[in-house]
Structures are given as structure tokens and as C-alpha cells.
Amino acid sequence: MEQDENRFEALLGKFMAGTIMPGEHLEMMDLIGNDDRKQALYEACTGSGPVDQQSVEAAFERHWQQLPSRVHPAGRYFVWRRVVAAAAVLLVLGLVVFQSIYRGNPQTFITQVGERKSVILPDGSTVRLNGGSMLVLDGGFNQANRRITFRGEGYFQIEKDAKRPFTIVTEGTTINVLGTVFNLRAYEEEDKIETALISGRVEFTLPANPAKKIPLQPGKKVSVYKEGIRDSSGTAALTGGATENYIVSDITLSPGQPMANETLWTADKLVFDGDNLVLVASKLEKWYGVEVKIANGANREKKFSAIFPHMELDTVLQALARTGSLRFSRSGESVTLDAPTD
Amino acid sequence: MTKIKLKQGENIASDDELREWQHLVAYHRDEQAYRRLFFHFYPLGVRFCTQYLRRGELAEEAVADVMTNLWLMGKKLMDIQNLRVYVLKAFRNKALDYAEKNRKFSFQEELVHDMAADLQSPEERMISSEAVAAIDRALDSLPPKCRAVFLLVRETRCTYREAAEIMGIAENTVNRHIQTAIRQLAALLGL
Lengths: 342, 191
Known about the structure:
The complex is a heterodimer. Chain A folds into three domains: 2-101, no CATH class; 108-250, Jelly Rolls (Sandwich); 268-338, Phage tail protein beta-alpha-beta fold (3-Layer(bab) Sandwich). The longest helix of chain A is centred in the N-terminal third of the chain and has 24 residues, at 79-102. Chain A has seven helices and 18 strands. Chain A is an alpha+beta fold. In chain A, 29% of the residues lie in helices and 30% in strands. Chain B is globular.
């Protein structure tokens, strides 16, 4: 019997070390047999402690209340950009103070170019902001309504609340959200506004026809062209005789990537998805906090597709140049894209 | 050599799940994922830190501190290769830190043997059944360091190497602690 005990304890040791062989494991279970004492010892060595979910739940609630939700921004900026940003912040602060006196308590979230961060709105929704974005909560947000004004790019995870639909107003479109996850790219200086729906439901309306609600299905994206749809030569054209200025298409998933191209930026990957040179330049500006100019000779409608994980600006520029479709010059924080030589 | 998969406890997340939550917290500031991480680490963390701190509230505070740091790391969170080892190591360091600052409430890792038996700690509040209580009383009688190592290996799928890294001791010492624990538990559980 004594030998049994020692053998059992040795096997249990191997079991805990993760070095037990299948045959030995069977032997150990045989030794346990109907022996309550061995069974208890086996359980003491293998079971994890019991957990009272409610006490953990309560601990989490306390913890979450005290948790600072700020994230430290990372990025490089020009001094003058900081000055402009500071001025903008002051202006916004002034507006906020002014508005809060008259109509509730609006709040503003801003990212500078080259900066990306996440914010949690008073209703519990979270938004990840790409560089150069601004999100303004309307006065009375989360009381009577949930309405925001937005420009830039954001990955929205909106809390469901049927009583207070979430509305996003951008320069060229208004989006009604009913609890959902989606990506919105709406920079003032870019010619299209793109909404990619990951899950849930959204409806959007265009300023020209606010009564017409256009629903969007998950897995689809809508591109609204402010100046009308252009063909590849850059001249204004409406496809198939359509009188609308938007296109609905599928969101795209690249092989080996964990999420749709439209949202990969939230995993710190810079993505060009059949983007023309103008959009490439704009994305580079927002991503790296630099100024990107396009020389007159360059083909502005040339399209590029690529995914860059955590790369220096120079590496990305060199990769673009290697396509043979452009060359670049960079001095400090200013980049010029030009037609290739020869 | 074929390895048998250890510990299938329902409260224990797989490494893949941990990695996913780590990613969601780092890049999306995902509250749900953070909550899951918290649920994964908190109960064990409190048990583990209680090995070093006499008062349960101190252990809870130490664990909350470590979790807060995870949240504040932002994207840097993704620099952590093995979150399980990192967090447990952080628990131990934080607990030792607190023990140093609150000497009269703390255990000396090597010296105290059975003070744990009269703990009014959160882990005691978590005990739900008689059988488990018997096992826990037996565990309480182990030397604190031995018990900490035993809990680590039992509850976190730590390999001996990982446990050694977390505790700052040699792999052989981990093995010795486990053997001691098994022998002592065997004696105490003489039903």
C-alpha cells in the first residue's frame, strides 16, 4: 500500500508538471479507483478554486468606476501644428463654455494628425478616432437624444438604445444608428464619405433628400461622393444613368487579416484599398502627421492597394515608389509625390 | 513526449482567448474584453496576493492596481508576449510592494506557516462547498511560498518554467514545492 501511495504522488507530480504520459495517466486514474482520499487529493491538485461570480462582478463595477479612461496619445507634430491645435482647443473650449451656458453641456473630442485614440461617450458607446478627427456631442446628449457632429475617421461601437437613436451628422450625410459597429470615414477635404457596417443596422440620409432613408446591411459599405461620381479619368460621371451620388458595395477582407480592410487602421495597420493617389496622400497625412503634396505631373487617379503594419513613413514611401507609378521627395515633415522619372 | 492538457476549469480562458482580449483592449479599448480579462485574473489574483498580504482588502487593492495598469498601457499592451506570466508576475511584485509598505499586515514569505488559517479574506468568502472548504483548509496549512507556487500551477496552466519565472525561483525549486505540497496535502486529506 505504501508503495501505491508513493507511486500515486509521483504520478500526480508529473500530472501537475504537464509531463505525464498517456499510459501513466491511466495508471493514475486506476490508482484513484474508489479511494476517496486519493480522489480528494486529485481534486485538490487539479481543480481551480471556486469563484463567486457575484463578488467578482461587484469588484469589477467598483474597479470600472475608478478607472481612468484616458489613453496617452502618441505621435509627432509640428510646433505650429501644436499652436494651431492649441488655438483650436481654446476656440472649442470657448464654444463649449458659451454653448453650455445656453444649451446643456456639449463635449468635444479631438485627435491631431498622426494621433489615434479611443473615447468613451456618456452613453457607454466607444469610438476609436483616427488622426485629424473631431467629434462634438450635441447639447443634451444622452438626455433627450444622442446626436453628434463628426468629421474625420472613426470606428464606432454604439450602445443599443431604441428610445434614443444615435445620429451622426457629417458634411455630406446623416447617419441614423440603431446599436451597431461600423467605420465612418468623413474628412472634409476628401471627396467621398465612406460608411462600412460591421454589424447591426444603420440608415443614412443625404442632405439633398432628407426624407429618403437608405438602409445599409452588415458587410456592406456605402460611399457618398460629394461632387458626384467620377470615372477613372477623373471627370464627373454617373454610373448606369443613376441619379444618386452614392455607391453601395461589399466591405473587403484581405487574406490573413483579422478584420475588414475598412477597419484595419484600428489595429494600427495603414491600408490602401484601391485608393487613388489623392486619397493615398490624405491617408499618409492623417497617419504620420506630415504634409503630403501631389506635384502637377503625377497621375492623381492612379490606384494603390497595400497593407502596412507598423512601418516608418520612409518605408511606406519607398514601397509606393517601387510600383514604378510615382517617385517621392521628403524634407522633414513635408512630402511631395511626383510622376516617376523617365 | 505527449503532453496531457491540464486544467479545464470553466473560469480559465485559453491562451487564444487571452490574446484576443488583449488585442481588443489594446486597440479598441473594448470594455467587454477588459471585463473578461478582469474576471479571468481577479479571483486568482486575490487568492495569490493573499499569500503575501494579511488583509484581504490589500490583496484586492493590489490586484486592482495591476489591472488598472493593463488598461492604461493602451497599445503598449500588445508588447506583452505572454500576458498570463506578465500579469501573475505583476501580482507578485505588487503584493510584495504592498507588504513592504504595510509591514504589520504582511506575511514574511519564508517564515510564517499557518497564520493563513485564520484569514478573513475574500477567498474565504468565495468558498461555496464543504469539500472545497476542506481542501482549502488543507491548502492553508502549506508554507505560504509553497502554497503560492501550488496555486499558480494548479489554477493558471503555468508550466514549471513559467511559475519559476513568476516567483523568481529555479525550476527545480518549483518542482520541490509541488512535491512538498502533494505530500502534505496527502497527509492532511487522510479522510
